Amino acid sequence: MSQVLYLSYDGMTDPLGQSQVIPYIEGLSKLGYEFTLISFEKPERFEKFSKEISERLKRSNIDWVPLTYTKKPPVLSTVYDLWRMQKKAFALHVEKNFSIVHCRSYISAFVGLAMKRKFGTKFLFDMRGFYADERVDGKIWSLSNPLYKTIFNFFKQKEEAFLTEADYTISLTLAGKKILQARNEIPNQPIPIQVIPCCADLDLFAQRSVDEKLKRELRQKFQLTGNEFVLSYLGSIGTWYMLDEMLDFFKCLLEKRPDAKFLFITNEQPQNILSKAGQKNIPETAFLISAAKHHEVPTFLSLSNWNLFFILPVFSKQASSPTKQGEIMGMGIPHVCNAGVGDVDGITEGLQSGILVREFSASAYQSAIEKILSDKINFNSEKIVAAADEVYSLAKGVQKYAQVYEALIRGER
Fold first, then answer.
1. What are the Cα distances from residue 208, in Å, to 204, 248, 391?
2. CB-count exposure of residue 328 (10 Å: 0-12, 13-18, 19+)
3. 256: pLDDT confidence band, cut at 50, 70 and 90?
4. What is the pLDDT of residue 374?
């Protein structure tokens, strides 16, 4: 039985841990791998959800070792947490003799690389994106600031070491894999990379999960007759999602369909959306804005005819896989999105799951809207669901991880 140490700087009591870590290791546990999981938990969430998460992990015989996340001071707190992660990982290895150290993202990879060098364990670098480039593209690190430029250069050097010495690397996108394998400064190219996108819970995100009673209540609450055109947006609006451009698109839609509604399924404060809409002279009455519990999201989505998401098309986003795309496709709902982000282009056009906007302009929006409202283009919900299963199935994601684990144990690159 192979012992695997899974290292995550994200918490398992966080939504991300529950959707993008636990389901995978639960699936891999069923295939016979024995997991020890180190994660960093935020105190308030740990107090609220630790019992539930602990019981869930115990059911899969996953040995969970939660450590407290340190928030302040910046940088030093991360260094301190990294030291604690490594100390705990080394101690556990003496006890359990891990075959594989599975490192989620860059912070954990520092420990995975140290363990490979010290103990000879297999190092799996599950990179999750281009971390340092994301910090710059997201304007979190300004390269004009000498401190941040030093930190950026440090992480890029470490990234090269991780990619060079990892026994296997996981990329969320084929686009990201191509970029990594074209880097001449990394020896032994092509380095072994498996592409596994952010998989979706396609048992939940399916039409069969729609609560018809709740759907009737929502129609009444939002005063929907069933004849309106409803465009939906799912998730938070932060660094990467282009609210201004999405509102511009909706304004163009209103010119063709004055009865259209824009449904935001989000925890954002409504005023953050409505204030920007007001600046564009879009009436508040055109918006439906509501938070939803995770299990309610499919029902909220089912109110919509189409979904929309625009993501900032910067370099680092070539390595990004938006989870929402798989969730929307699982519902059989076609979507409008922009080009230049990860594998979104190929999934949207190649698998006929929606319409791709190639520039942020009124003419591009009008062209897409004409296609949406035209009787000539009919997106097939069943085909969209089948495409979601092909790309975003959790079972297939687990199987891909298992193939990597097997290759590591056999000593293959």
1. 8, 33, 20
2. buried
3. very high
4. 87
> What span, in angstroms and rounded, lies between the C-alpha atoms of 50 and 46?
5
Task: Give the CATH number of domain 207-392.
Answer: 3.40.50.2000
Cα–Cα distance, 218 to 214 (Å, whole number): 6
- Segment 134-160 mean pLDDT: 95
Which pLDDT does position 398 carry in this prediction?
97
| pLDDT tens-digit map of 339-369 | 999 999 999 999 999 999 999 999 999 999 9
Q: For residue 165, what is the DSSP state?
A: H
What are the residue boundaries of the structural domains of the chain, listed by start? 3-197+394-410, 207-392
d(CA 364, CA 308): 14
CA dihedral 181, 182, 187, 188 (to 10 degrees): 50
Q: Cα(226)–Cα(192) distance, rounded to whole angstroms?
A: 50
Angstrom distance (rounded) from CA 4 to CA 96: 9
**Angle, CA 276 vertex, CA 272 and CA 278 arms, to 5°:** 115
Considering only CA atoms, give the Rg of the chain. 22
Top-tier CATH class for 3-197+394-410 = alpha beta
Can 3-197+394-410 and 207-392 be said to share one CATH topology?
Answer: yes
Task: Count CB atoms within 10 A of the CB of residue 314.
Answer: 17
Residue linked to tokens 């281009």: 130
> Is-contact 48 23, C-beta < 8 A?
no
Q: Hey, what are 24's tokens? A: 């995978």
Contacts of 271 (CB under 8 A, 6+ apart): none
